[in-house]
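Q: Convert this sequence to structure tokens.
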Amino acid sequence: MKFTMKKMAAFLGGAVLSASASAYDNMYVFGDSLSDSGNLTEVFQSPVEVKFTNISPFTGQATIATDALAAGLGLTNNPSKWLLGQNVGTNYAVGGAAAIPSDPNNDTSLPIQIGAHLLSTGGVADANGLYVIVIGGNDLNAAAQIRAQGVFTAPGAERQAARKGSKDRVDAAVDVISNQIQTLIATGATAIAVADAPDISKTPLLRANVNDLYQAAVASGNPQNERRALEYPEKVSSLVDRFNRKLRKSVRNIEAATGIDIIEYSLQDFLDRTIEEGEEAGLNTTTPCVESVPALADCSAFVFSDGFHPSSTVHTQAGQEFLEAVLSQ
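A:
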């Protein structure tokens, strides 16, 4: 069941949130940097929790979306530390993770995360828990890199391969997510919430990539390369649309086959609206906070923390909207 918000003013009051706090016993989170509450700390061996929010270089105690979601439900969002072989929390998300691993030797992908959770439970999901999946941005970034190869290729098979390869990468990621949702249901999960992917073409990182592509295209002396470089953001946005469209269709098919009503939340709609309304409100919607102000400064006036991640303020807003999606189910 898809849920989107038109106005932030529609947030539920605290009394309503408290009334629903006992709906679930636990919240289990799987995904990437948008939902990692500290598991990447293990990789960095950092004395503080590593979160991709608003403190340079992306460390600190600032709120992420799943923190806000958990708080509204009266639950915790502590890192499980599964990469250390521990099981001390319910958040298995890892910054940099994807549905499909980019490095088989350092696999923190969605299937591995869910497998680690089920290993700790004897293969049985929590029938009274809420399972949250927030993943796809890194898969889309991988697909976008494949698509970029078509900017400088000659017409014909090579350019078609770049176009097809990027779409295949998107489709494969959705298939993995779909399979993992079905795994959770097959092992006993009854409440699952899935977020789609934000439009990564609107991030500072992708805009910088476009600039690099365009400069290289100009240097090539081929006007057609310049044209394709300028069209690249639109192609990436189309990949995002493809990912989210196929994910929605997959969720519908799973609902029809299992009778489970899956909660859906659109990060794509949220980011699009946040950028549009942020520009009107005077927020910085283009420059990463960590490149604009001294370390540890307040990033509340910025949409993006760094080139690819939202600020803590935006994370909190997304978490509050996600909470409404869960409570409306």
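Residues 223-258 form the longest helix (36 residues).
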